[in-house]
Amino acid sequence: MSIWDTAGQEKYRSMNRNFYAGSHGVVLCFDLTKHVEESDVMDWVNEVDNNIDKECFRMIIGTKCDAVLPMSTTSDTLKNICAVLSISYLETSALTGKNVKETFDMLVAEIERRQEDYKLRCASSVLYNRNNSVVSLADGVYTSDASGPNKAAKSGTCC
Fold this sequence. Notes:
Elements: H1 16-20, E1 25-31, H2 38-51, E2 57-63, H3 74-85, E3 88-91, H4 100-123, E4 127-128, E5 134-137, E6 140-145, E7 148-151
Parallel strand pairs: 1-2, 2-3
Antiparallel strand pairs: 4-5, 5-6, 6-7
């Protein structure tokens, strides 16, 4: 597992697209002690959605939950966005350790579940000919001969 922290700083934003390539999970973290506008959260969600595969798991984390002021609305803002967009949400505290392990457990479990689903969908798209040789795979049609498989036209099937 590789974890990249871009710290959300504007000067690194143009490099973020490089980090999304091939990602199986993305965690967006927001400081609960600071006011966060819904539009700021949506900017990040849209950036992620525009740069990840549809199978990539997304979650939003509210950090510093141990230090939240009673009048803070950031937690409610994040919860509402996550509910509307069906994004997982947790609040964490590095100081107390609250939900830190649970965040990574959830991330890994969901990535593993999605990869297993992907494998099952792809396995069901394999076709065999009467000699029990593979003739079609998820990413294209293959023919077998004495020299081995040869890729032919795309099949347009799953995965």
